[in-house]
């Protein structure tokens, strides 16, 4: 049997909600019923048949031939099977996935893997802000599974992460791993300012010294945790590109402004910001919505 393939007819004129196009939903539908599914997000009605040509019949393997930044919610709630996108996707790709595999050959928009519970997401290009993070008002970001970004990621990657693995093989923006509850974030390239800001627990592994580090992290010296060797071996077997990170054995504990039970591992020879400059006078303006709650007067 051939994979169920959606070939994009033309660039969409409005954002499209593709959350219904998962194996669990499509398995019980005929091709004509699939073509009638509504995917529009404005008052102008749009159905699958308006935007895609369909071929193939194996709903457990879905392929999008052609992508676009307006294709939102791809792989939403995916529980089993595989979805492959030959191009870009919009926001919230892989949100609330509970299993299966999502592969994006191009770039992904913001909130990639938001609320991910299980399964694996691979993006061969770049990812937008808040990869693995929560929606506004939610208390936790990704809760399991793994996300692999082969390019760069935007700000606040892994925000409020509770469990799972987030690997960014390129650079990451500011506040990576902010407010982490647990889990592991690995950044192979250059991390922006304040990684691990207000993190409670969990592990952040950096391939390079970050641009700026919060002064509430404590340098505990060099360490050689046994779990790192097991972690690298496991990641290499699963296809993650982590070569060159094996020397990440300089450990910082934090964020002491919170529980202080998290840790950050840096390359052995790297000097932390504490070593190179006085960070006590560094600006500490947090992004909107992630700082401590202001006290009420009176």
Number of strands: 15
Structural class: mainly beta
Question: What is the arithmetic mean of pLDDT?
Answer: 89
Uncertain ranges: 270-287
Name the quaternary structure.
Answer: single chain
How much helicity do the residues have? Answer: under 10%
Spatial strand order of the main sheet: 3-1-4-6-7-8-9-10-11-12-15-14-13
Measure the end-to-end span: 69 Å
Rg, nearest Å: 21 Å
Pattern of helices and strands: EEHHHEEEEEEEEEEEHEEH
What's the overall geometry? elongated
Main beta sheet strand tally, sense and closure: 13 strands, mixed
Bin the strand percentage.
25-35%
Task: Summarize the model shown.
This protein has 298 residues and is mainly beta. The protein contains 5 helices and 15 strands.
Topology of helices and strands:
Layout (H helix, E strand, L loop, with lengths): L2 E6 L7 E2 L5 H4 L4 H5 L12 H4 E4 L2 E8 L5 E2 L9 E4 L12 E7 L13 E6 L19 E7 L13 E6 L15 E4 L15 E4 L11 E5 L3 H12 L12 E5 L7 E5 L6 H4 L22
Parallel strand pairs: 1-4, 2-5, 4-6, 6-7, 7-8, 8-9, 9-10, 10-11, 11-12, 12-15
Antiparallel strand pairs: 1-3, 13-14, 14-15
General description of the model:
It is a single chain. This protein is mostly beta strands. It has five helices and 15 strands. A 13-stranded mixed β-sheet has the order 3-1-4-6-7-8-9-10-11-12-15-14-13. A two-stranded parallel ribbon has the order 2-5. A hairpin with a 7-residue loop joins strand 14 (250-254) and strand 15. The longest helix is centred in the last third of the chain and has 12 residues, at 226-237. It starts with a strand and ends in a 22-residue tail after the last helix.
